[in-house]
Design brief:
single chain; 663 residues; alpha/beta; TIM Barrel; Rossmann fold; FAD/NAD(P)-binding domain; 8-stranded parallel beta barrel; 5-stranded parallel beta sheet; 28 strands; 32% helix; globular; disordered N terminus
Length: 663
């Protein structure tokens, strides 16, 4: 794997702890991961926690919705030990999302009792995370100016917050206590106070966002005063037999709060009666990757370990822990007492049960695309690229009332999802793939730096297709006559797309498509111009520059990477800049000539010298077979994925699933 491009060597220095991740299923018993742990007076049945994440499923008044019950009940059923629900804003000024949960008013209390009672019946500890967005709140959401310890603009929202008065500080401290009392009345087992990630409490802790000169600013002792008073307010509002935890950013990665500061804060929290500390890292505006694919699994666990060394209460480690094998290793090595697994459980809520039963190859993997986080930043509700059943997981696809003989053509993400869902419903399924392996475009998309996790999705589908008896035929191109001989009741066409090459001169010998370069893992030396600044073009430029090419990206629009998730786009662009990749926007391609590309920029036509030209100008649907079948076949015919309209993995998987449950 290439070096982490812009991180000092020490950031992930503790990853040497993990030397035995590649453990076979037979060797992995998960004895430690599924050992109970006591927190306050409660026993948590295992060491897996589902941490609080904003989902955007709440009702607009902050009450618990049917969508949320479906979501959390599914993860409770999946075998998790503890669930932290939220974040739940404690007052309206602290709301960060239009559909964020709230504990700001007594009217919300009843709406939570269904899920808290359900968790109690299932023996799962359920907590509510208490939050206040501070300068991360947005006036569009709250209807009022954000507040913060100091009037320092937010890079996340672009707004300037109002500096809190002492009277307002006391009001917010009381609001945390009132919210904890509501959580208690809603029958939660406890609360978790969010004091990290750039929200209000962490803004008080940071020397970057806290410039106050009163008793709430200046020294670390003063900067932690707000947190300690919040803790005291919460403790006074509930009984002693009630868990109170704190989630901290161990290092904000900006210099405002360091791990040494956090160790001091953690020891103080323990002395104030906090029951556990959950360790996060960074803020949303931190200039370093935190949960993107660039970060190795458990890459931040060393910070949790630093805190564990100075406190005796349980410590929860999180961020980029997606494998139960890695989670077990964290516990075995004593680096933390519990692990927080957010996106891994977002993708597969049954991960704990599957791990306990040794069915690791049946765990649907998170591919690290961060579509979930990007949608939250955009004020939308969370969806998942590879879990099309999200928010409807408790309603499993009905078994087919009539078993049909189904042929699926194409073994890419759409074809594999369609074949799997159809087989799970009881249909007799044959999948035909013209290449010698499954995966389709996933095999290509997994080639750029840090995208190898996409290959895990292929392995998952291979295992599940085998489990459900799908007849997989590789190395055979499906044509109308072949399909007719199979006499299918239904044909699902998932033949994907083909790269566009409609540029004058595209047939010259020094011209490649991005797909060709990545599929063959071709190393192009010298100067390379990549035509097209979408996700494929940028990732191909990343791949080529990683192998020594001098790369220029040409894009006709005024911005690049618009089809990438917003939570990951900035990381890729930063890496390209650090490697000297030149990006030319508002540049129109006119013609490809020998060793050069003719472009027009600002009304002026110029020539760019290049040893190679790589085209990444999109794909067009490969729908020839679909059209032929519609004309000649007597079977039911459906098309899914890029052969209908080119899109993202999320589009292909969702479309395939939605069609498969109707057949």
């Amino acid at each position: 794997m290439p070096k982490l491009w812009h991180l000092e060597a020490s950031v992930y220095r503790k990853t040497f702890f993990f030397t035995t991740w590649q453990v076979s299923v037979a060797e992995t018993m998960f004895v430690h991961l599924f050992t109970p742990i006591k927190v306050n007076n409660f026993y948590i049945k295992n060491r897996i926690m589902f941490p609080a994440i904003t989902l955007g499923y709440a009702n607009f008044d902050g009450t618990f919705s049917e969508e949320l019950f479906d979501f959390y009940a599914t993860r409770i059923d999946g075998g998790v030990g503890a669930v932290v629900i939220g974040g739940c804003f404690v007052e309206v000024r602290g709301k960060t999302h239009p559909r964020e949960l709230g504990l700001h008013s007594d009217h919300v209390i009843d709406s939570y009792r269904r899920v808290t009672r359900y968790a109690n019946e299932k023996g799962v500890i359920v907590l509510a995370q208490l939050t206040h967005g501070g300068r991360y709140s947005h006036s569009i959401v709250t209807g009022c100016q954000p507040v913060a310890p100091s009037a320092i603009p937010s890079k996340l929202t672009g707004e300037v917050p109002k500096e809190l008065t002492k009277e307002e500080i006391k009001e917010i401290i009381s609001a945390f206590g009132d919210a904890a009392r509501r959580a208690y009345e809603a029958e939660f087992h406890g609360v978790e106070i969010l004091a990290g990630t750039g929200y209000l409490i962490s803004e008080f802790l940071s020397s970057i966002t806290n410039k106050r000169t009163d008793e709430y600013g200046g020294s670390l002792e003063n900067r932690m005063r707000f947190l300690l008073e919040v803790v005291n307010s919460v403790r006074k509002s509930v009984r002693s037999r009630f868990i109170v935890g704190v989630r901290l950013s161990a290092d904000d990665l900006m210099g405002g709060v360091t791990i040494e500061d956090t160790k001091v804060i953690s020891k103080r929290l323990e002395s104030e009666g906090i029951d556990y500390i959950s360790v996060s890292v960074g803020w949303h505006e931190s200039p370093k990757p935190i949960i993107t694919r660039e970060v190795p699994q458990a890459g931040w666990v060393h910070l949790a370990y630093e805190i564990k060394r100075v406190v005796s209460i349980p410590v929860v480690a999180g961020l980029r822990i997606k494998s139960p094998v890695v989670a077990e290793d964290v516990i075995v090595k004593g680096l933390a007492d519990m692990v927080a697994m957010a996106r891994a459980l977002l993708v597969d809520p049954e991960l704990p049960i599957k791990a306990m039963e040794g069915r690791l190859d049946e765990i649907r993997p998170c591919i690290g695309c961060l579509r979930c986080l990007s949608l939250v930043f955009e004020g939308q509700s969370v969806t998942c690229s590879v879990n099309p059943r999200l928010t409807r997981e408790r309603t499993k696809p009905l078994l087919a009332t009539k078993v049909k003989n189904v042929v699926v053509v194409g073994g890419g993400p759409a074809g594999m999802e369609a074949a799997l869902t159809l087989a799970m419903r009881g249909h007799k399924v044959t999948l035909i793939e013209k290449n010698s392996r499954l995966g389709g475009t996933l095999n290509i998309a997994s080639k750029p730096p840090y995208k190898s996790e996409l290959a895990e999705l292929i392995k998952y589908y291979e295992a599940m297709l085998k489990k459900y008896g799908v007849n997989v035929i590789l190395g055979v191109e499906a044509v109308v006559d072949l399909i007719a001989k199979m006499s299918p009741d239904v044909v699902v066409v998932a033949t994907g797309g083909v790269p566009r090459k409609d540029v004058p001169g595209a047939t010259l010998p020094h011209v490649r498509s991005a797909h060709e370069v990545l599929e063959k893992e071709e190393v192009l030396k010298g100067s390379v111009v990549v035509v097209g600044g979408g996700g494929v073009g940028l990732e191909t430029a990343d791949y080529l520059s990683e192998h020594g090419a001098k790369v220029t990206v040409v894009e006709m629009l005024d911005r690049v990477g618009l089809d990438l998730e917003s939570a990951t786009r900035w990381v890729l662009l930063s890496r390209l800049r650090s490697k000297g990749v030149q990006i030319l926007t508002k540049t129109k391609v006119k013609e490809i000539k020998e060793k050069m590309l003719v472009v027009e920029r600002g009304g002026v036509q110029t020539e760019l010298q290049a040893d190679y030209i790589v085209l990444a100008i999109g794909i067009e649907p490969n729908n020839k077979l679909y059209r032929e079948l519609l004309e000649k076949s007597k079977s039911e015919i459906y098309a899914v994925g890029d052969c209908t309209k080119p899109g993202r993995i999320a589009d292909a998987v969702s479309m395939a699933y939605n069609i498969a449950i109707t057949i």
